[in-house]
Each structure stands twice: as C-alpha cells, then as structure tokens.
Amino acid sequence: MEQIIKLEKISQYNDIKGVETQHPLISVFDNSTARALPNYSRFHFGFYAIFLKELHCGELKYGRNSYDYDDGTLVFIGPGQVIEVNNEENYQPTGWVLLFHPDLVKGTALGKLMNQYSFFSYESHEALHLSIKEQEIIKDLLNKLEYEISQAIDKHSKRIITNNIELLLNYCVRFYDRQFITRENINNDVLSRFEHLLNDYFQTEVIQDLGLPSVGYFADCLHLSANYFGDLIKKETGKSAQEYIHLKLIDVAKEKVFDTEKSVSQIAFELGFKYPQHFNRMFKKSTGYTPNEYRSLN
C-alpha cells in the first residue's frame, strides 16, 4: 500500500519543494522556482492550499479523479484532504502556490467565513478555470501576499494578510459563479441526469435498500462532490439540492396518497421513511394537510 505523507506544518511542504519558510503559518511562491513533488506520491494536508496551474505540468488527483482542464486552473485543497501526484517525466512545475494554516485565520473575520467557501471540498476535476484577466487578478493578490510575508512582522501584518486572502477567496466565489454560467451545457446535462436518477430512485428497489434519498447519493452517482453538486443545483434551479429532492418526494407522496388500498404507514415505508410519523410531519409541513386529510380533500 502506497505511503501517505502527512503535512501538518507549512514548513514541511516548503522543505519538500526547496522553498524558504518566511512565515510559519503562510507561504506564497512561484512554483517554477521550486522543486517538483516526488512522483507517484500522496499527501495528507493539514492546512489550506491553493494551486494556480499555468501550463500542463503533470497530473494531480484528488478523490481519485483528474482535472478536466489544465491551463489557468485553480485547485483548492482543505485540511484533511489527500492529493496524489503523478508527474510526467522531467516536467517543470509552473504557476503559483498559496498555503495557509487554519491557525492563521483563527479569531479573525476570515476565520468565521471559511466554512462558506465550499470549493475547498470540491473535487479537483471541478476546479476553477480562469480567463486571462481573472488570472491577472489572482496573481496580483498573490504578489501582494508574497510581499507582505517578506516584510518584518508588525501589528498590522495579520490583518493585512488575512484581508488579502479573504479578497482572493471572494474573487474566487465570483469566478465560480461565472463558471456555472459559462459551463451551462455541462450543468444542464448534470441536471438532466439528476432528474433521471431521481425518478428512478422512486421507481426501483433502491429506495427500499437505502431509504430516503440523500444529496450525497446523487452526487456520488454523478461523480461530483456533494458541495459542488449542491452549488450547481442551486445556481440552475434556485433551490438547494435537498429542497429539490424534498419537492420531488412530496410530489410522489401526493400521488401515492390517492391509492386508498394502501395505508399511510405503508406509503411512508415505500417512500423510505423508517417512521410514519416523520412522513406525516413532512407532508403536513409541505402541503398544510396530513396525508389522510389530503386524501379526503381530493
């Protein structure tokens, strides 16, 4: 079994890359001036990492999946994630690297927002693909961070550093919103396949085996991370993936309630509920009526 290299400190990654550690909690450097990562190696990250790839320079895998694009790609790695590096022979790294430890943002305004940047748990093949102008904005912010880290630390350093990281991440939120639009054909295909899977879920034995449908189940079927899948559905439909599934569940339930030969409890079990009372509460919350009341009214 291949060994996983655990990286808990920024300095550990810098040492592998042959880069000087100027700050214990953050590092920014031009990858073309650094060593390549060991080939066919896997790394467990204990900190945040953002990679800007400028040229095709080997293969990076996350979740056992590869990029669908190389030039001008941003990849986000969060603490606890594992990446696998499969380099081409004699390749030279390019682009930029930003690493920052969770301790850097603790107690700051950015620290309270980190959970909102869902792209840190996207798969690498759902990376952010930048235009030339977008790349320039990101590089400008990375240059500012590199400059600040190279200066003597004073009482302003932490605020300036975290503010620039926050600005960079907020730009990435904007760019991802743009990507959901420019990749509309791909997204529509995902939505169509999701609809098909959702219909099949209620018409096959899957529901009896797995119970109520979950966002994670459909994300896995579509080979997407749950966060990316949820964000995509939200952008395309205006509803969260969970809300979308919930609405479909209620629509199917309304049809089944018309079958007077079945009790409400039987219908609840057919829909994947373990307890009929849970079905009753969800149905009433959505329709304003209990299943029996809805059956009588119709």
From TrEMBL:
Any one GO molecular function term: DNA-binding transcription factor activity
Protein name listed in UniProt: AraC-like DNA-binding protein
Gene3D superfamilies per the UniProt record, alphabetical: Homeodomain-like
Organism lineage: Bacteria, Pseudomonadati, Bacteroidota, Cytophagia, Cytophagales
Membrane-spanning intervals of the chain: none
All copies of domain HTH araC/xylS-type, residue ranges: 192-297
Keyword field: DNA-binding, Transcription, Transcription regulation
Pfam families the UniProt entry points to: HTH_18
Listed SUPFAM superfamilies: Homeodomain-like
InterPro entries membership: Homeodomain-like_sf (IPR009057), HTH_AraC (IPR018060), Tscrpt_reg_AraC-type_HTH (IPR020449)
Extent of the signal sequence: none
